[in-house]
Structure formats: structure tokens, C-alpha cells
Amino acid sequence: QVIVHDVNELTEKLFPIVEAMQKHFSAGSGTYYSDSIFFLSVAMHRIMPKEITQIIQVDLDLKYKTNIRDLFDEFENFPEGAVIGIAREMQPVYRHTFWQYRRENPQTRVGEPPPDGLPGFNSGVLLLNLEAMRQSKLYNQLLEPTMVQKLTEKYHFKGHLGDQDFFTMVGMEHPELFHVLDCTWNRQLCTWWRDHGYSDVFDQYFQCEGEVKIYHGNCNTPIPED
Hints:
Elements: H1 7-25, H2 44-47, E1 54-58, E2 62-64, H3 69-72, E3 84-88, H4 93-97, H5 99-104, E4 121-129, H6 130-135, H7 137-142, H8 145-154, H9 163-173, E5 178-181, E6 187-188, H10 202-206, E7 214-216
Parallel strand pairs: 3-5, 6-7
Antiparallel strand pairs: 1-4, 2-7, 3-4
Helix pairs in contact: 1-8
GO biological process, one term: protein O-linked glycosylation via N-acetyl-galactosamine
GO molecular function, one term: xylosyl alpha-1,3-xylosyltransferase activity
GO cellular component, one term: endoplasmic reticulum membrane
């Protein structure tokens, strides 16, 4: 069964919820009404019918090497308290974004590469447990403008990647809200940061062992042919 949702209607519902965070996680002025759609996943639990309990949200620049149905099994692996399944970011973009916080906290894991660091998240493949999101008092508190402001100030955070920035910042503070997907479920291919000042550490973020299930051709990167 396919249900089509009107983008304008969704944006109208989203805007009041995410307006305050847009200025922190959007390119440009960050307050455009249309920008709200880039925060759809953040508040999906507030605008979807209650009978919808789980959603997989994916970018368009993906190539599937396995049945997407297998990804639904990951919902069973969520630890208690987790509301969203998401893979790590595979470039040092957040090493860059959190530079000031990292300078003030030299021992931090924030922005460090896996397996021990917190490299941030990539929202190209998202598992949204809507029921858990609705019931999580902590997650809904974090959507409040005052909490968003508090965290952006703590981490000196200014991003431009929409929902991905929000999830990354929240994940630095509350990693327990996230089930980290294996990199093979979102094998990102973009290498932009390799050529923009981070060639020395790039491979620590970019490596991914295992058979790829989903390729992600982010930043217009060609996806390998079969």
C-alpha cells in the first residue's frame, strides 16, 4: 500500500516544531519555511498517524545490495531507551565542526574517529521508532528551543546539514538515544574532506569492513556498478 503525503501540508505541521533549530542547522539564514522539510525525521513522531509505529527514511542517492526488508530487523536490536537507528558519519566533518569545543576539551571523544570516538552521524539511512520517540520524555525535551539553544552553546555548534546535525549534537550528549547501524547499511562514498585539510586522518573515518548492503553516493559521488 502506497500513501502519498503532501510536502506543503507536512511542512506546515513541521515548521512550529523545528523553527527554532533551523537557525543552528541550516545553510544560509536557516529560517526559510521550506527548510523545515530537512528536519522531517526529527519530528516525524509528532506528525504521522499514531498507528504508524516504525518508519525507515532514506535519501535518494542510495543503491541497495540487499533486501530493504532486512533493515527492518534492526529495530529488534535497539537497546532500551534508543529511539533512532543511524550509522556513523564516515568523514571528519564533525571533527571540523566541533573544532572549538575540541580545542577547549583536548581529551574529548567528540569528533574523534571510531571505534572509540564520536564521529557524529549520517542521516542517509534512518530507522525511526516512532512509538519510542513518542514515549521518550528525554527525546521530546531535546526538541524544545531552550534545550537546543543550551546544547548549541555548550558545543559551539553551527551546522548546515539539517536533521543530521541535530542527531549528531544530541548524540554527543545522549548516545543512549541511538542504535548505531553498521557502516555497511550506509556505506558513504563522499571523499570531500580528504582533499580539504584532513588527509592525515581521513581513512580512520572512511574505512568500513564487511559486505556493503547499501551504498550512499553522497556529494554526487558515483556509485560502483555491479
